[in-house]
Design goal:
Layout: H1 2-18, E1 23-31, H2 38-49, E2 58-64, E3 67-70, E4 76-78, E5 93-97, E6 101-108
Parallel strand pairs: 1-2
Antiparallel strand pairs: 1-6, 3-4, 3-5
Helix pairs in contact: 1-2
Length: 109
């Protein structure tokens, strides 16, 4: 379960940037290609924040849809799974979105 390692890194970063202030909520964007299970991440967040200044904070996950552009036909399309294949049959694609992982905001106080 890689969600635990990801969540621990997020909690570490948030607690460091909170500079001792209580963390109330954290908003995170995660690309669909990162294969994160939202329920697992919420569970791990509760574990990782226990006993920290983020204990009890809310986690808001925004899953970013995976999109790619085909180099052969120049079509942009949604990736519904990990198979990077355009409808034209080409596997020569550039992933545009879906791999990001970013702490967008946090509320402290």
């Amino acid at each position: 379960m890689h969600e635990l390692a990801i969540t621990e890194s997020i909690v570490d970063a948030v607690c460091e940037h909170a500079a001792g202030r209580r963390v109330r909520s954290v908003q995170v964007e995660i690309g669909a290609l990162c294969a994160v299970v939202p329920d697992a991440m919420h569970f791990c967040f509760d574990l990782a924040t226990a006993g920290t200044i983020a204990d009890g904070a809310a986690l808001d996950l925004d899953i970013i849809t995976a999109r790619a552009r085909c180099k052969a036909c120049d079509r942009e399309f949604v990736l519904v799974d990990m198979i990077l294949l355009c409808d034209c049959g080409s596997a020569d694609v550039d992933v545009i979105t879906g791999r990001e992982m970013c702490i967008k905001s946090m509320k402290v106080g």
